[in-house]
Amino acid sequence: MLQPCNGPCLFVIQARSGPVSGSSYQQLSLKLLFFSKLSYSLLLQSSTIVETAITIVVNNIRSTTTRLEIASSTLNDLVIHPPASEILVPLTASLYVPATLQDSTYVLIDVGTGYLIEKTMDEGKDYCERKINLLK
């Protein structure tokens, strides 16, 4: 049974895995650590881990925002091209293939996990702008 946290403390969840009768299991244990009982080096190491995790999350948000801004800009560029225009379609950040624009009335939006939704051009722009504003 855990004691109440009366002061600066940290909950630590430890997971251990191992085989049981040919299958695997995972055991979780919850410990309560008081900051006053932790060594300086452990506190420093913990803060470094947290700082690294936060940096990774912030970089992912910046990267996602940049990709959405590029998508929004691309949608704005598609409006000025008439049907049957030759365009370059990005497959990756550095690989493009030529294509012929058939219709720019509708766009497909990747909403995650492999799902694409057909929207009008204006709805597509609105989607990008809402996501950009959410991330900023």
Automatic annotation (TrEMBL):
One of its GO terms (cellular component) is cytoplasm. One of its GO terms (molecular function) is unfolded protein binding. One of its GO terms (biological process) is RNA polymerase I assembly. It comes from the Eukaryota. Pfam families: Prefoldin. InterPro entries: PFD_alpha_archaea, Prefoldin, Prefoldin_subunit_alpha. Belongs to the prefoldin subunit alpha family. This is Prefoldin alpha subunit. The lineage of its organism: Eukaryota, Viridiplantae, Streptophyta, Embryophyta, Tracheophyta.
